[in-house]
Amino acid sequence: MEDQKELKTLIIQGAVYKTTYTKKFENRVNYETPNENLIYSFIPGTIVDIFVKPKQKVKEGETLLLLEAMKMENQVRMPFDGTIVKIYIKKDEIIPKRHLMLEIKPA
Length: 107
Prior knowledge:
four-stranded antiparallel β-sheet, CATH 2.40.50.100
């Protein structure tokens, strides 16, 4: 007789299913909700200019910094009203994708 795999419980939108998981599914990287108080680079590039300082109050939509990538300058804007807690980058620094640039705190 074939090896019987252990059935596991899978819940999708409240519906409960009994199933087996593939190795790929069992070894996947679990999703983590992003921390909205940390601003990461979305593309590798060079920091052209930083317009804010720590402890500065910033309104939603204000430009925080310029990130040059692929010969284009991208404005990184404040997602909500708040305060700059810490700046992790310097002007003219080359940064990779998903590099922590700023820590902010909601107003």
